[in-house]
Structure formats: C-alpha cells, structure tokens
Amino acid sequence: MSGAQNWSVKGIDPKVREAAREAAARQGMSLGEYLNQALASG
Question: In terms of C-beta density within 10 A (0-12 exposed, 13-18 middle, 19 or more buried), how is residue 28 classed?
C-alpha cells in the first residue's frame, strides 16, 4: 500500500462524528487510528 491518502465519508451524522472523535481521544488515538482498529476488529 502506498502512502497516506486524504478521504472523506459523506452522510455521517455530525453527532456520530463527534462521538467517534471523543472515543478516539479517550483512548489516546487519532480518529484514523481509532477507526482502523474498530473496523479491523469488527
């Protein structure tokens, strides 16, 4: 896989987006790290 790429996901409820950011922060992770972990373990 090549280097990091920017992307966006449309249609995410702002409240859900903020909840994900807060959950990531509580675990000391970036939002990307948090989503990678959450989706990989899904």
Answer: exposed
8: its two tokens: 């966006």
Residue ranges per structural domain of the chain: 11-42
pTM over 0.85: no
Euclidean distance between CA atoms 26 and 6, whole angstroms: 23
The pair of structure tokens assigned to 13 is 């409820």
Q: Per-residue pLDDT tens for 8-40?
A: 889 999 999 999 999 999 999 999 999 999 999
Whether residue 1 is predicted with pLDDT greater than 70 in this model: the reply is no
Question: Which residues, in sequence order, are CB contacts of 22 under 8 Å at separation 6+?
Answer: none
